[in-house]
Structure to design on (219 residues):
């Protein structure tokens, strides 16, 4: 993939846009989880969350338009694999922004003066894991590093299984209902986040037709 991207400036520019989108998503995640787990002040959601998500959406549209124009006007057959990669990856990054907004909305579902210690007990380690995956996903895509990409995929799958186990544990626990609901919703959103990161990483290590299907049987 890296060889394809280095052939000309059009693909290099799109890589820069995707990296910028991932960076914005990571900052959104830090903001949302800082409020949820640490009780940090929600002092500027418009700038620190919603405007960043709008920027992600804008970059997605620009990337799609650039791919279409490249293929329509003077595009070469060799451009098709990288074009398919870009259209898949920007979709995943855009969905990451949406799920981070869902995580942010959990705060409004909590009671007044919520039990942050309870939230951190269940969500602390998963939150740290996702923050690390943001960094590694960005690095894997930027460097087209197959080793890091494979690590992202494996860790994402492991985290997803862990969240399902935690959800089952929560549903049979004596945690108050409003907290249990919020925890389960957050873990579901977390699972979607790591799934999209796995998809992005799969673009580095898999053939174009297998992107998003890293661990599925070929029927």
């Amino acid at each position: 993939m890296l060889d394809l991207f280095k052939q000309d400036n059009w693909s290099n520019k799109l890589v820069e846009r995707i990296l910028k989108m991932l960076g914005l998503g990571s900052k959104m995640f830090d903001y949302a989880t800082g409020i949820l787990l640490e009780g940090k002040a929600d002092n500027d959601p418009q700038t620190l969350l919603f405007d960043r998500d709008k920027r992600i959406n804008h970059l997605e549209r620009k990337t799609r338009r650039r791919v279409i124009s490249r293929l329509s006007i003077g595009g070469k057959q060799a451009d098709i694999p990288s074009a398919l990669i870009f259209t898949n990856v920007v979709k995943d990054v855009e969905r990451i922004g949406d799920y981070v907004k869902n995580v942010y909305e959990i705060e409004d579902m909590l009671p007044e003066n919520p039990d942050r210690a309870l939230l951190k007990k269940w969500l602390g380690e998963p939150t740290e894991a996702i923050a690390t995956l943001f960094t590694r996903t960005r690095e894997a895509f930027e460097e087209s590093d197959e080793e890091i990409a494979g690590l992202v995929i494996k860790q994402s799958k492991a985290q997803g299984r862990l969240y399902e186990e935690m959800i089952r544990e929560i549903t049979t626990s004596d945690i108050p209902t409003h907290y249990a609901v919020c925890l389960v919703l957050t873990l579901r959103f977390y699972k979607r986040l790591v799934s999209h990161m796995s998809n992005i990483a799969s673009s580095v290590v898999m053939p174009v037709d297998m992107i998003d299907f890293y661990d599925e049987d070929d029927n």
Summary: The two ends are 25 Å apart (CA to CA). The mean pLDDT is 88. The helical segments are 2-5, 9-38, 45-72, 79-105, 116-143, 146-171, 177-205.
